[in-house]
């Protein structure tokens, strides 16, 4: 039985090579300091940060993939061509374009490609060039975190200015910003530069900042600044209430997630969240400061979800419109979401299958939806016939739930198969067992 070929963000043994898109914990689940299955390929910055997250890791296993360049790997059973592309998500994050006997597969990892981001523009150019000699992309493994039209938020530089405005409007307050252990460095740097202040971070985060090359902006001395970036897990309304007993304090949560407010109404196609009405969608521009000021004013006031807490739509994941533009560029045959189980999961083929070269799965989804609607109409008809005293007696109920998925895989062209579980993807030989 032929063993697996490669695994991406998936760390069970059985593959010849392993690839890491970035160091967020949902992509490193199963990777440990003692892990030693095979060579591990990642970006230079991820390789620099990985020993800090996994002390004692065997560094001889690391192989560097430079973003913007293509690499040829000779494995036991195949020659693999891989192009690393800047994902603009967090430090070191990359997309991976694979070509081999199995066809062509693009794994996005987590990514944010804004129209106004120069790094994203450069990354699009790299991807476009890499695809020139590719007949088609068989599968895109997509960051589907916000793959529904209800997710609509502005570019990060606009959201960052809103954070700065909140801080500036509270000159006598301590400010707490909830962040993860990696990511949103650009936001903190913009705050520091705009307000000419240092940013407090906890000791482990300071070490990460130093590894990233930021030596003068961040501090662990609370007496030097009133702005503190704290781990998101310690960020809560209860914490803010306790802090306000000692001194005036506000909290800011920079995230795309809180901006999910408006639900679909009957016969309504939702093209954005409640934030959408506050700016003209698709018109973000970085051409002039005046235009940026207009964009910021159009957002309106940041949402205040508590007496002491604000949320600002600063997201390191692409919104619906950005995902749509990305898929128009790639035009894959199939799409698979890499977020397989979450409260906001939605099957990406439902909305984006129309952008695929082959959209049979989308057709199946629409046919299934039509069958459900037809069944619902029949139930409603029966319900209206069994009314009593002017009140309808319902004979059916809505059993639909938010989709939570996990997919077992799809056979690729030629001899191989691409498989994806909750985290990561695995390309295997045709005779491999279907067991994970």
From TrEMBL:
Cellular component aspect of the GO annotation: nucleus
SUPFAM superfamilies reported in the protein's UniProt record: Metallo-hydrolase/oxidoreductase
Domain of life: Eukaryota
Record keywords: DNA damage, DNA recombination, DNA repair, Endonuclease, Exonuclease, Hydrolase, Nuclease, Nucleus
Residue ranges annotated for the DNA repair metallo-beta-lactamase domain, each copy included: 216-336
Biased composition (Polar residues): 383-395
Gene Ontology terms, MF aspect: 5'-3' DNA exonuclease activity; damaged DNA binding; endonuclease activity
Region (Disordered): 381-409
Compartments in which it is found: Nucleus
InterPro entries: DRMBL (IPR011084), RibonucZ/Hydroxyglut_hydro (IPR036866)
One example of a Gene Ontology biological process annotation: interstrand cross-link repair
Family, as annotated: Belongs to the DNA repair metallo-beta-lactamase (DRMBL) family.
Name of the featured protein: Protein artemis
Protein species of origin: Phaseolus coccineus
Record lineage: Eukaryota, Viridiplantae, Streptophyta, Embryophyta, Tracheophyta
């Amino acid at each position: 039985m032929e063993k697996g070929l490669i695994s991406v963000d998936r760390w069970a043994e059985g593959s010849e090579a392993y690839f890491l898109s970035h160091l967020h914990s949902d992509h490193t689940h199963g990777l440990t300091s003692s892990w030693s299955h095979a060579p591990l390929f990642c970006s230079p910055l991820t390789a620099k940060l990985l020993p800090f997250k996994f002390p004692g890791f065997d560094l001889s296993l690391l192989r560097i993939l430079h973003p913007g360049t293509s690499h040829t790997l000779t494995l036991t059973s195949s020659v693999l061509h891989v192009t690393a592309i800047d994902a603009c998500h967090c430090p070191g994050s990359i997309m991976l374009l694979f070509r081999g006997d199995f066809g062509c597969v693009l794994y996005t990892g987590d990514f944010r490609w804004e129209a106004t981001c120069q790094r994203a523009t450069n990354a699009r150019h790299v991807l476009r060039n890499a695809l020139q000699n590719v007949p088609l992309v068989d599968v895109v493994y997509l960051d589907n975190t916000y793959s529904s039209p209800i997710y609509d938020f502005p570019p990060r530089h606009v959201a960052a200015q809103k954070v700065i405005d909140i801080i500036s409007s509270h000159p006598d307050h301590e400010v707490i910003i909830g962040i993860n252990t990696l990511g949103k460095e650009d936001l903190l740097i913009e705050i520091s530069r705009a307000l000419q202040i240092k940013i407090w971070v906890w000791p482990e985060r300071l070490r990460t900042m130093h590894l990233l090359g930021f030596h003068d902006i961040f501090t662990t001395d609370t007496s030097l600044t009133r702005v503190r970036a704290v781990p998101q897990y310690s960020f809560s309304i209860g914490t803010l209430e306790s802090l306000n007993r000692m001194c005036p304090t506000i909290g800011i949560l920079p995230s795309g997630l809180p901006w999910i407010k408006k639900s679909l109404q009957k016969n309504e196609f939702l093209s954005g969240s409640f934030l959408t009405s506050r700016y003209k969608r698709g018109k973000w521009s970085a051409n002039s400061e005046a235009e940026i000021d207009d964009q910021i004013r159009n957002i309106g006031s940041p949402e205040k979800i508590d007496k002491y807490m604000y949320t600002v739509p600063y997201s390191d994941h692409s919104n619906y419109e950005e995902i749509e533009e990305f898929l128009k560029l790639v035009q894959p045959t199939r799409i698979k979401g890499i977020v397989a189980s979450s409260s906001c999961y939605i099957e990406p083929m439902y909305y984006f299958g129309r952008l695929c070269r082959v959209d049979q799965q989308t057709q199946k989804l629409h046919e299934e939806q039509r069958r459900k609607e037809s069944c619902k109409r029949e139930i409603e008809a029966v319900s209206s016939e069994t009314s009593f005293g002017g009140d309808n007696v319902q004979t059916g109920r809505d059993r639909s739930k938010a989709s939570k998925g996990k997919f077992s895989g799809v056979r690729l062209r030629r001899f191989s198969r691409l498989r994806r579980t909750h985290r990561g993807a695995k390309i295997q030989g045709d005779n491999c067992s279907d067991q994970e």
